[in-house]
Amino acid sequence: MGSDINIGIVYDNKQKGKINFYLSEVIKLLINNFGTIKFLRYSKDKDGTKWIEQEQKQLDSKKTKLLTTNYYGKVELASDVFGKNLIETVVSIEQTDSYFGFLIQFNEQELSENLTIWEVENLIIDFVLQNQNTLEFQYAFCDHEGEMEYTHDEIKNITEEIYSLLFIPSDNTGNMKVLKSRWALDGLTNR
User: Fold this and answer.
1) What residue segments make up the domains of the chain, in order of their start?
2) Number of neighbouring beta carbons within 10 Å of residue 41
3) Which is it for strands 139-144 and 71-79: parallel, antiparallel or unpaired?
4) Mind listing the pLDDT tens digit for each residue in 145-180?
5) CA distance 167 to 55
């Protein structure tokens, strides 16, 4: 698949009762009009030795629950979220003792085809800002091969740049703080 530009959407475990709802909403946003779900994958055991893979076209509540109650759930899809050609995309469910979230991996080459890195960045910023009320996340990020590594409390206290883009909702105001690092989403270009 090559390298990826990842969007991470992170929640506090206090929101875990809505994990299935949030997963469904993320998938709906990504397949928007003409996108399609291809495969669901998850492991029946924590060691990742008993994998289940199902070719799917829809994600119903039963399938969502299988993805979130088993291990390492993934949804592979072709996304039309940015209104261009379908982009190979993987949504991975990540769960820890402190937080959970969804890592959305876009194929960098497909995403940036016919666009500059700055145009891609603006599309991603618009996507996150337009969907913050639906997704109700604690924070979100975007970066080249970015990974989910921090709790919301850690993010609030971090002083160094850790992601190309970091989205932190303001408490109770509905506003969003968008922090940009010194590097662009491709991990190479200076801002």
Assistant:
1) 4-180
2) 17
3) unpaired
4) 999 999 999 998 888 899 999 999 987 667 899 999
5) 33
